[in-house]
Amino acid sequence: MMKGDKREIIIEAATAIFARDGFDRAKMEDISIQAGIGKGTIYEYFKSKKELFQEVIKNSISIYVGLLKDVGTEEQPFDKKLADFIRLHKEFLEKNRDLANLLMKDTRGIPDGVKKHFLYVKKEAINAAVNMIDSAIQHGEVRDIKRRIGARIILGITISLVTAGFMEDEDWNVDDVVDIILNGISR
C-alpha cells in the first residue's frame, strides 16, 4: 500500500467514525480499527484528532467544491442548470448525511479552525450561482437582477430545504423548487 493510499484510508475511516460518534466521542483507536491499521500509524499522518477532523472536513469540502464548479457549466437552459445546482446540494448532503448531521446538530465539538472551510464553501456556492444567473441574463432567460442577491436567495432556499430534508425527514422535489424560484408564488 502506498503512503498516499493509507492517508486516504485513514480519512475515510475517520469520516465514518466522526459521523457516527461526533468529534468529542470519536476515538483514534476506533478510527484505526475502522481503517485496519495500528493506532500509531494515524499519528504518522496527523498530529492530533483535531487535525484529522479538519482533514476530514477539507476532504469533503474539496469533493463538494469540485462538483460545484462543474454544475451549470454545460450549455443548457437556466431551469436545467438551476435544477442541477439544487440537486447537487441535495444529493451530496444525502450521501454524506451522517457527517452533515454532525456538523449541523453538534457544533460544540467542532474545532474553530473548521469554520473557515465552511465560509469558503459558501463563497464558492454563491459564486457558482452568480455565474449561472449571469449566463441566464446574457441569454435572455431571466431579467437583469442583482446577481449576488439572487444567488444568496437560491442558495438559502436550497440549504433550508436540504436541512429540512434530513433533519426533519421532510421530502421535497427539485422541480417544485425550480418552479417556485422561477415563477414565484403570486398569481
From TrEMBL:
The chain crosses the membrane at residues 149-167. Residues 4-64 form the HTH tetR-type domain. One of its GO terms (biological process) is negative regulation of DNA-templated transcription. Residues 27-46 bind DNA. The keyword Transferase does not apply. Keywords: DNA-binding, Membrane, Transcription, Transcription regulation, Transmembrane, Transmembrane helix. Pfam families: TetR_N. The keyword Transcription regulation applies. GO terms for molecular function: DNA binding. This is TetR/AcrR family transcriptional regulator. It comes from Calorimonas adulescens.
